[in-house]
Amino acid sequence: MKYLATIGLEVHVQLKTRSKMFCASPVEFGATPNTHTCPVCLGLPGALPVMNQEALRMTVLTGLMLDCDIAPICKFDRKNYFYPDMPKNYQISQYDMPLCTNGNVPLHDLAYPKDAQKNIATPDKQVHLVRIHLEEDVAKSFHFEASTGIDFNRAGTPLMEIVTQPEINSPEEAFAFLTSLKQILIYGAVSDADMEKGQLRCDCNVSVRPEKQAELGAKIEIKNMNSISGVRRALAFEIQRQTKALERGDKLQQETRGWDDAAGETFLMRTKESAHDYRYFPDPDARTFHGSISSHAV
Ligand SMILES: [Zn+2]
Fold it and tell me: Which of 120, 222, 223, 270 could cysteine-pair with 204, CB 3.0–4.6 Å?
């Protein structure tokens, strides 16, 4: 029996602004930990967010470069969760009214891995997007032997989330998608998209089903990929793992997995039962705007 893979990507892109999304703290990679913070990005009581207009402009520009529809009205929401990397206990994000919807990323021949360029399954393919929304990045945790340190320099950095339709059918197409997207983001000067610096990070949703089955298989998510070649290898591993399981007659279930690059395999992180409920609601501090908002432009 033949099996088909269906892949969708969620890509997080750090914007190249000079200051953070809701405060004037500078954005700088590699600075001494906890030197670029203020009451807003530390979530201190009483601190209020002030929108970064340049981050809005860059997100809309990305939407225009990718042929998206730009929302005439949008809003920001609170995504509630309790974790040390987000001191407010919520992240300001966009839930049901994102800045950009639809759009697409064209996969050029030269964006495929070199060894796959002679054998492109669907030349001139475009991968359609669901949405692009704007949110704030969280702090970065460093796990030491007996303790964990947190660097809040990254907390509050403007972050775009770009979500594709589940239209990618191979690890090579996922590679081409990320390569094309990265080129467009760099060309538009909205991000340096350096994956080694965490400026572009990717979650992959992948499911496998028998060719004759119309319904998609169980959606398995691989979290926090930080290299394009890693995405290709992780997807290849995961498609093979799921195919083997189906051939054995096993039933796959929705789960979240991590990628161990050194071992070259994915591992189970959590199953559907432990999925988060973020209890989104509109952020009363970052109000709906119609072109005129309280903002700073750096
Ligand atoms: Zn700050």
Answer: 222
Q: Which amino acid is located at 82 in the chain? A: F
Q: How far is the CA of 35 from the centre of ligand 1 (A)?
A: 10
Distance 32 CA to ligand 1 centre (A): 15
| pTM (predicted TM-score) | 0.93
**Domain locations in the chain as residue ranges:** 3-291
For residue 27, report the distance from its CA to the centre of ligand 1, in Å: 9
Centre of ligand 1 from the C-alpha of residue 42, in Å: 7
188 Cα–ligand 1 center, Å:
26
Rounded to the nearest whole angstrom, what is the distance from the C-alpha of residue 69 to the centroid of ligand 1? 31
Residues contacting 256, CB < 8 A, separation 6+: 220, 221, 222, 223, 268, 269, 270, 271
List the pLDDT tens digit at each of the 298 positions of the chain.
799 999 999 999 999 999 999 999 999 999 999 999 999 999 999 999 999 999 999 999 999 999 999 999 989 999 998 888 998 999 999 999 999 999 999 999 999 999 999 999 999 999 999 999 999 999 999 999 999 999 999 999 999 999 999 999 999 999 999 999 999 999 999 999 999 999 999 999 999 999 999 999 999 999 989 899 999 999 999 999 999 999 999 999 999 999 999 999 999 998 876 667 899 999 988 864 444 444 555 5
CA distances in angstroms from 203 to 38, 150, 228, listed in the order given? 30, 22, 11
